[in-house]
Amino acid sequence: MNRLIIILFLIFAFGFQEKTDYKAAREKMVNNQIKARGIQNRLTLAAMQTVPRHKFVPEKLLSSAYFDSPLPIGYGQTISQPYIVAFMTETIKPKKDFKVLEIGTGSGYQAAILANIVDSVFTIEIVEALYDQAKIRLNELNYHNIFVKNADGYYGWEEKDPFDAIVVTAAAEFVPPPLIAQLKDGGKMIIPVGTPFITQQLLLIEKKEQKIKTKNLMFVRFVPFTRNKDQ
Ligand code: SAH
After folding, report:
1. Tens digits of per-residue pLDDT, 94-120?
2. Is 153 in the pocket of ligand 1 (CB under 6 A)?
3. What residue numbers bound the domain in which 148 lies?
4. How far apart (Å, rounded) are the C-alpha atoms in residues 100 and 95?
5. Which of 2, 45, 51, 205 is at 20 to 30 A from 32, Cα to Cα?
6. Can 80 be counted among the known catalytic residues?
7. Contact 222, 200 (CB under 8 A)
8. What's the structural domain count of the chain?
9. Which one, of 105, 88, 39, lies nearest residue 188 by Cα?
10. Looking at per-residue confidence, does 16 or 173 come out higher?
């Protein structure tokens, strides 16, 4: 009997320890990787502190979930580095009433960060298996304001436009015109543009009175924006 109590206690204590460890790892991530590099947006920092990044990485990479790097999520794709996720989120200046389009759901992590801040997130993933996984994961984590679609994001999500902001998390060779068309007047799009796997520029595109303003933000390295040949 005593032994049973000790075992139960150890299981409970271990579970508790795990939870506090992840919370502490997140706090360290926010302080050392995100605040330290200049991210200040309060809503972005709160979301990065809240979303359990370890639930978005493959089981065998659990211990690396809060590392300062992207991680493989299968099918040749990656979950972006925490700082890049925070930077992209801060750059669109997210507001509570925003409707955001994301291209490249991947693990669903960037969508979850956005969904902690904005009203709704529409996210498109071209790889069916990743779409399936992300949909299940986001549902299990109770993200009812994220809508996932399996399609080529080049065409955006016309039935739901216009969007206050568009976040593209795969590197395109040029900015897809349908995405510009689906951006609200006064809206912001952030997109890596350039040669896949080599160097790309992270661009901020702003639409105002039908005029497009483009700004280079920094050099980045994203997985390629692929095209669905059937469409
Ligand atoms: N935002 C993701 C990062 C995923 S990496 C995260 O937080 O985990 C980029 C993703 O874009 C990959 O999953 C890739 O399959 C997807 N992708 C590439 N080209 C695409 C396209 N044309 N339409 C939709 N998704 C695309």
Report:
1. 999 999 999 999 999 999 999 999 999
2. yes
3. 2-220
4. 10
5. 205
6. yes
7. yes
8. 1
9. 88
10. 173
Write the CATH number for 59.
3.40.50.150
- 89 Cβ contact list (under 8 Å, min separation 6): 41, 44, 47, 110, 113, 114, 117, 167
Regarding the beta carbon of 114 and ligand 1, being less than 6 Å apart is answered no
Spatial contact of 112 and 56, defined as CB atoms under 8 Å apart: yes
Asked whether residue 200 is domain-assigned, the answer is yes
Q: Is residue 231 part of a domain?
A: no
Q: Whose CA is nearest to atom 26 of ligand 1?
A: 104
Given this model, what pLDDT does residue 218 score?
95
What is the spatial distance between Cα 48 and Cα 168, in angstroms, rounded to a whole number? 19
Q: Among 225, 230, 231, which residue has the most ligand 1 atoms within 8 Å of its CB, making it the best to mutate? A: 225
Is 219 exposed, middle or buried (CB count within 10 Å of its CB: 0-12, 13-18, 19+)?
exposed
Q: Flag whether 205 is in a domain.
A: yes
Atom of ligand 1 nearest to the CA of 73: 8
- For ligand 1, atom 23, the nearest C-alpha belongs to 153
- For the cut 70, the answer to whether the pLDDT of residue 122 exceeds it is yes
